[in-house]
Amino acid sequence: MPHPAPDFRLVLDGRDLSDRVRPRLISLNLSEQRGGEADQLDLTLSDHDGQLALPRKGVEVSLQLGWRGQALVDKGRFRVDEVEHSGAPDQVVIRARSADFTAAFRERRERSWKGKTLGAALGEIAQAQGLQLRVDPALAGQQLPVLGQSRESDAALLSRLGKRFDAVATVKGGALVFTRAGSGTTASGRDLGELTLTRDAGDRHVWKTAEREAYGGATASALMCSAASPGTACAPAPSSRDPRQPVPSPAFQGTDLSSTLYLFQSLLCSGDSDPAPGAGG
Length: 281
Prior knowledge:
Elements: E1 6-12, E2 15-16, H1 18-21, E3 25-31, E4 40-46, E5 60-67, E6 73-86, E7 91-98, E8 108-117, H2 118-128, E9 132-135, H3 137-140, E10 143-153, H4 154-164, E11 167-172, E12 175-180, E13 217-224, E14 229-236, H5 257-261, H6 263-270, E15 278-280
Parallel strand pairs: 9-12
Antiparallel strand pairs: 1-2, 1-5, 3-4, 4-7, 5-6, 6-7, 8-10, 11-12, 13-14, 13-15
């Protein structure tokens, strides 16, 4: 049985250049990021005859990937970011990054949310960026006692929220996607299904295991003006549970680790504390 042959479709500035690129193609590499980083497309083309025209920076590229004879999968839109010519042998390297990560998405902002749900905050971010919102229903209802964005870009804020809720936070295909990491479902909650891979499905494999980052807990302190004395909250992470998840804090009964860490922002917003907080993990 013959092995399937890979195929692609490449559109540059509205023109389908697949047939012209194919005989010159040395390598095509697509790096898809799960966090607040842009997907990157790297193309290496042969310029053995010196006839290859260099694309303008900022021009839009769209890519589809798949197998010959089958429907191709749309991998999104990119903007040419770097162009490099080297030799001999003469080659052209074109690097393009996701068009969804605009300059406005990396612009630092000042705003805050209080008493909102995670879904409501993400909805405001998506609307400001002109994006659709696709958020896991199990995460959309999470309450945010307070959330501050101080001289922080929307990309950085999404990355921080992704780490806080152990979620994939990214922008794909004109949509802000926020879904649980490793859940096996789409952002709307639809099951992705399963795929069984066997040794005869490919000619190479790699298996790797590593210890993930572990934390012993978190400590937070602030000067409480009403009591004229510093207050400290310590939330240890027992070895029997995932240290990234919120745990009860003995200093603040009825709250969780997330609320403890964001205590100071809440106090500052309400005006009940002196702006001299400190926190350590």
